[in-house]
Amino acid sequence: xxxxxxxxxxxxxxxxxxxxxxxxxxxxxxxxxxxxxxxxxxxxxxxxxxxxxxxxxxxxxxxxxxxxxxxxxxxxxxxxxxxxxxxxxxxxxxxxxxxxxxxxxxxxxxxxxxxxxxxxxxxxxxxxxxxxxxxxxxxxxxxxxxxxxxxxxxxxxxxxxxxxxxxxxxxxxxxxxxxxxxxxxxxxxxxxxxxxxxxxxxxxxxxxxxxxxxxxxxxxxxxxxxxxxxxxxxxxxxxxxxxxxxxxxxxxxxxxxxxxxxxxxxxxxxxxxxxxxxxxxxxxxxxxxxxxxxxxxxxxxxxxxxxxxxxxxxxxxxxxxxxxxxxxxxxxxxxxxxxxxxxxxxxxxxxxxxxxxxxxxxxxxxxxxxxxxxxxxxxxxxxxxxxxxxxxxxxx
Length: 396
Ligand SMILES: Cc1cc2nc3c(=O)[nH]c(=O)nc-3n(C[C@H](O)[C@H](O)[C@H](O)COP(=O)(O)O)c2cc1C
Ligand SMILES: [Fe+2]
Ligand SMILES: [Fe+2]
Fold this sequence. Notes:
Strand order of the largest sheet: 1-2-7-8-9-10-11
Bound molecules: flavin mononucleotide, fe (ii) ion
Number of strands: 22
CATH topology of the largest domain: Metallo-beta-lactamase, Chain A
């Protein structure tokens, strides 16, 4: 079998990146990432998106292998973020007659990034492009999933959606390409992490795109990152729907900062008391050592967040502040929230945590635990149990 053949005439030509340590300079890549690109071999040949330019020579070899002497007639640019567009200039040099297809916003960015303005084809919402040989494409705009110019391309003959970043996930394609060819276990968490870190702010546009695409019969989803989805489409759609509605499933994320371990002991005591009350699953993160992308992933996944912080120069502990800033930037509209904190001479942490939750308009029926100076079981355990009891009651 030709493993790169997704459907008759649709070939995978993307690449794996196991070298980059931080996606967008921010997000860890423990399983790497793939930049997916696809060739459509009709009477005319179309290439769907490109890859990160440092992988350009591998990409070109993949293309040449599948082209088998033919040339590229169209390059469809669904998304201009450079992880998908930065090989455009190189391809233009190799295939000078290749016509670049995008919408008005794409073409404006293409000129700004790569100085390319000639031999382009502007498409509008719902426009189609017939490649002949039983392949055609229809274009649907999906603005802000994840940039304003994003569109998706749909091939009705094979009920195949080229979805740009939507339904993408971190993680390379090890051997297989479709979801029945690769080991899937780690992709579900990686999909949530990708969503929370990259797309998380844009839940409303993602919901709009899901509603629009829901009218199409879709049997194959070719995203720009991660496996080609076929068998698992219902699960993938469900994850995206839940994440973009910010609908957390039952569970607690407890994230804290601590310099000398006193606030940390409060965190552990509260977590134990929660477990004793039957609340779960519980995930505890020390924000000084945690990978922040994991914390964001789990805040998107679960419905309850408990945050603890020492008072630090009259402010929140910086790593706690950093988490709150990232959560505010993602406009998470609803979460159950509780907090705890500590100080030695003039407490500020708890007040600032409460003010944050108020500003987010989150559900905050629980009273905070505020500790003065050091942790002791005798002084603190009772108030931790009380907080856990209030959280348990809130979740009933
Ligand atoms: C660099 C630094 C700055 C601090 N600033 C304040 C402060 O502004 N107000 C205050 O009441 N305590 C302040 N403290 C005391 C801490 O809040 C206290 O040590 C902490 O709450 C104990 O929790 P921990 O052991 O989890 O770090 C500061 C401590 C450090 C090390
Ligand atoms: Fe993107
Ligand atoms: Fe991307």
